[in-house]
Amino acid sequence: MKRMTMEEILADIRSDRVKKVIHDADMGIEMDDQYALAYCLGNEKIELLSCTASTFGKGKDGDYAWGMEESYKEILRVLDVCGVKDKYPAYRGATRPMGVDDPVDSDAVRNIIKTAMESDELIYILGTGCCTNIVSACLLEPRIKDKICVIWLGGTCLDTDDELKEECNLAWDFRAGQYLLGLDIPLVLLPAYTHGTCVLEINLDTLKAIKGDAPAAVFFRETLPGEYDDEPYYVNGWERILFDVAAPAVLAQPEAFEFKIIPAPVITDWGSYAFDSTRHKIIYMEKMEPKPVLDETWRCINNIGKAE
Description:
Blueprint: H1 6-13, E1 19-25, H2 32-42, E2 46-53, H3 64-81, E3 90-91, H4 107-118, E4 123-127, H5 132-140, E5 148-153, H6 168-171, H7 174-182, E6 187-190, E7 201-203, H8 215-226, E8 239-241, H9 246-252, E9 257-263, E10 266-267, E11 273-274, E12 281-288, H10 290-307
Parallel strand pairs: 1-2, 1-4, 2-3, 4-5, 5-6, 6-12
Antiparallel strand pairs: 7-8, 9-12, 10-11
Helix pairs in contact: 2-9, 2-10, 4-5, 5-7, 8-10
């Protein structure tokens, strides 16, 4: 399979072709990954192949093995409540961050490699957590770089990198994030802050768009939001940001995004962006329209409900 240019991949993203997808998520730390998975399950333009669990730290020293296992269990729970637990395989991922030239092997990594190498069409990997699994797969089997496109939600907007090092998906494995932007692979970068995917704000009234009494509908309208009703950093009542639904929306609703092909930025050791016009090209999201993406998320969940 010949490596596609960024222009060709952007044209493919904007096409009506059904895309094959692996969802790599830190689903145990927040609730937005769960809605991103539901989007994949209920959208006709996405063919979900498998799910892989990415890790996150907990506590002072960061218990990454615990974080990965929580993500894995949450993936299984979402698949189960959507009635498809036996249809989509899930794989455990890295239990620690990367070191220098130190990929972390795992079942998730082996799944990414196997899926890419056996496919005769481009595999899109939706990264909605730290990118340890994705980068490790690329380092352990460099041939997959011609067979995948990574859509990674992480970092901040290029013009506002004051909090770059604190952004969660980058912070859980900062070195992996540096590697990802340094690898010459097809990449779509979705920044979180300050005017990136953070515009995907919801409240309890928003969730009323999820209709019916099917298990998936009740879970996403009531059960899951109820589990996140005491977060101290949401001070204006129950409000959340569904950052991660942006990743599948890139494939199903590209018209909601403004993309630009740019030289890959560098993530410096001190936590800022640096720029070099000679570097390989990536696709960068400059802006997105939140309402159509959220409306489609509710439609996808309602689709799952109809299938129950």
